Amino acid sequence: MWLSVALICAALLFLIFRYVFSSSGPNPFDTDTREPLKEMVHNRKEKNKVLKQGFLASKVPENLDAIIIGSGIGGLGLGVLLAKVGKKVLVLEQHDRAGGCCHTFKEKGFEFDVGIHYIGDLLDHKPFRCMLDQMTNGQLQWEPLDNPFDHVVLGPPENRRRYPIYSGRTRFPEELKKCFPGEEKAIDEYLKLVKKVGRGIWLLAMLKLCPVPLAKFLVWSGLAERLSFFFKMAPRSLTEVVNELTENKDLRAVFTYIFGTYGNMPKDASFSMHSLLVTHYLNGAWYPKGGATEIAYHMIPIIEKAGGAVLVRAPVNRILFNDAKEAIGVSVMKGQEEVKVLAPMVISNAGIFNTYQKLLPKELQAMPAIQKQLSMMKNGEGGLSVFLGLNGTKEELGLKADNYWIFSENNFDELVVNYMNTKREESARKVPLLFVASPSAKDPTWEQRSPGKSTLSLVSFANYKWFEEWKDEKVSNRGAAYKELKQAFIDSVLEVVLDVFPKITSDKIEFIDAGTPITNTHYIGAPKGEIYGADHGIARFSPELNATVRPQTPLKNLYLTGQDVFLCGFAGALAGALTCGSVILNRNLHLDAIALAKRMKFMKEKLKAE
Ligand SMILES: Cc1cc2nc3c(=O)[nH]c(=O)nc-3n(C[C@H](O)[C@H](O)[C@H](O)COP(=O)(O)OP(=O)(O)OC[C@H]3O[C@@H](n4cnc5c(N)ncnc54)[C@H](O)[C@@H]3O)c2cc1C
Ligand SMILES: *[C@@H]1O[C@H](CO)[C@@H](O)[C@H](O)[C@H]1NC(C)=O
Ligand SMILES: *[C@@H]1O[C@H](CO)[C@@H](O)[C@H](O)[C@H]1NC(C)=O
Q: Is 115 inside any structural domain?
């Protein structure tokens, strides 16, 4: 009996090592490809030559190795990984510019970001930073936010309590303790749990990379939960864990405020997902110098250098299959015409719902394996964005390189339920949760690009159903009723902003507009206006789902990348690209990135010693 158990264990370990550490394909992080820093390009026309290359059949390179649907960080990131090992990749984007959530747009002279406000974990020589440096040939620079990087504001206008959130493994708890005397134990315990969960994330990547039978065994045997604290805590809700730590309602709120970065209210949020976000920002927060367009701008040339292309205004309307149910290419709508593009491999960055529900032929969509995956995931919450262009410098307007999370009460569960389930006119009158940040104040190049001006981005959630009736109307012309509803949301969030930022007055506002869930559908292809792709509630974190939803689809030569295969956020979507790249290149790119970081640190220390 013991012998057989030992044998099974040995076989299991062998399999784990073989599949997790196997490295038969070429390594995109083999050599250091950073180049000396070139002068930054701010000229919009010059940048558009890279970001806005319109689709034409004649621009499609011959003998493609792969087609990627969607140019978000999940698509472009994967494109770069493949290009770095010499693969010829075509990235197709439905919008008129590349970048997905990393794209920007300009209105009345103000440049606005869509989905990049702050990114964590970018300390020098950390694997994530090294990897991004390599993926942009050392040209993308990161500007740290101020410390405190976040401010949590709780309560109604007449009684707003402000809590600064600092980064730093010791500073974070120290500063919290100053705000909450007597709660030292709760704060230490919270951080201890959060860190322990963060360390268990390795198993998630492994479950997505090891062979399905092994993944299933780990799940079925309960080993996944035993081996990783991440999976142990994943079924527990944030509310449940935090309520055990403290009775202080404001502290509970401060422990949970960052749920806004993945979108599930604390009672639906997995403590594990939450912990990942807390640890993500524990060493600081950064913003791309020059704005979010810099990301795609420095990735596209790497794809082109290998013979590939990134083409926009290229909505893919279906994926093409042969009789053996193998993906062989895609069809792109060029006006009313379908243009077919063939390649031995198709990878979708368009999200699991678009890919399975819109791009597959009906009979493949009906396959039980596809239906099973769809049944395990659900659409995430819709997003509401308000963009303000202001007359004045950051000094004049009192804007800093930080973020504000403003809530009208400290009971977030109640607040979200009431807001999302109320009649739209009523919810519009009082938006009880609001993220406010000034992208212009975070970017050291802004003053040079737009002297005397500033921008403000406000983000909240919104129920897709509130706006659904207008979804088929033209984006810039949805009629008076839609405009009126939008205006009601704008007015109520503006009231909050003018109150919390006293230096901003209405006469400073030169431009203001809002994006609703149906705006997201149009510009970033989010089918239900999702802000963070598929829902990140507790169900998303079952080891079973993890082992099932992975870069490989049930259809040969069709893969998934981006936020739906791993997690949302810039880092999560990029981890999706890394996981997908690992499968395609048949080696563990997560480990390659870690090895690269070690090598680079070693080289730097050697240089210093010489
Ligand atoms: C308002 C907002 C604020 C955010 N703030 C932050 C933040 O501060 N920090 C952070 O880390 N994350 C933030 N995020 C989340 C982060 O931006 C996303 O999770 C991440 O960028 C998603 O990357 P992705 O590549 O998976 O998807 P996306 O960037 O959504 O890319 C998918 C692309 O596919 C395209 N597409 C879809 N269907 C088709 C088709 N049929 N044919 C061709 N193309 C198609 C879409 O147009 C889109 O460009 C924010 C998101 C939003 C919306
Ligand atoms: C911006 O403000 C300055 C003074 O602060 C004023 O002179 C200028 O006219 C304003 N510009 C606009 C477009 O409102
Ligand atoms: C699998 O679960 C982990 C944590 O349990 C989570 O991070 C990941 O997003 C899940 N996978 C998918 C496809 O959502």
A: no
| Separation of alpha carbons 140 and 135, rounded Å | 9
- State the Cα–Cα distance between residues 479 and 473, nearest whole angstrom: 9
Q: Are 136 and 295 in contact (CB under 8 A)?
A: yes
- Provide the CATH number for the domain around residue 561: 3.50.50.60
Residue 37 has pLDDT above 70, yes or no: yes
Same domain, 274 and 245: yes
Residue-wise pLDDT for 223-249, tens only, equals: 888 888 888 898 999 999 999 999 999
Sequential DSSP letters for 407-444: ESSS-HHHHHHHHHTS-HHHHHH---EEEEE-HHHH-T
Within this chain, do residues 276 and 183 fall inside the same structural domain, yes or no?
yes
Same-domain pairing of 500 and 387: yes
Give CA–CA dist 347/562, Å, rounded.
Answer: 10
Residues 500 and 397 in one domain: yes
Find the helix or strand (DSSP H, E) in which 272 lies: helix 271-280
In terms of domains, do 279 and 405 share one? yes
Q: Work out the burial of residue 71: count CB atoms within 10 Å of its CB; fewer than 13 is exposed, 13-18 middle, 19 or more buried.
A: buried
- The answer to whether residues 452 and 513 belong to one domain is yes
Cα 610 from Cα 600, distance rounded (Å): 15
Using the mean position of ligand 2's atoms as its centre, give its distance from the Cα of residue 391 in Å: 6
Q: Give the angle 81-350-301 at the CA atoms, nearest 5°.
A: 35
User: What is residue 16's predicted lDDT score, i.e. its pLDDT?
Assistant: 59
How many A from CA of 573 to the centre of ligand 1? Answer: 8
Q: At 2, is the pLDDT very low, low, confident or very high (cuts 50, 70, 90)?
A: very low
Three-state DSSP at 331 gives strand
Q: 229 and 278 in one domain?
A: yes
**E-only strand ranges, 237-322:** 285-288, 309-311, 316-321
CB atoms under 10 Å from CB of 319, counted, come to 23
Residue range(s) defining the domain that contains residue 485: 146-283+379-524
Q: How far is the CA of 566 from the centre of ligand 1 (A)?
A: 13
Pocket of ligand 2 (CB under 6 A): 391, 510
Cα(390) to ligand 2 centroid in Å equals 10
For residue 459, which atom of ligand 1 is closest to its CA? 1
User: What's residue 1's pLDDT?
Assistant: 46
In this structure, are 398 and 348 located in the same domain? no
Classify burial at 107, counting beta carbons within 10 Å of its beta carbon; exposed 0-12, middle 13-18, buried 19 or more.
middle
Closest-approaching ligand to the CA atom of 390: 2
Residue type at position 409: E
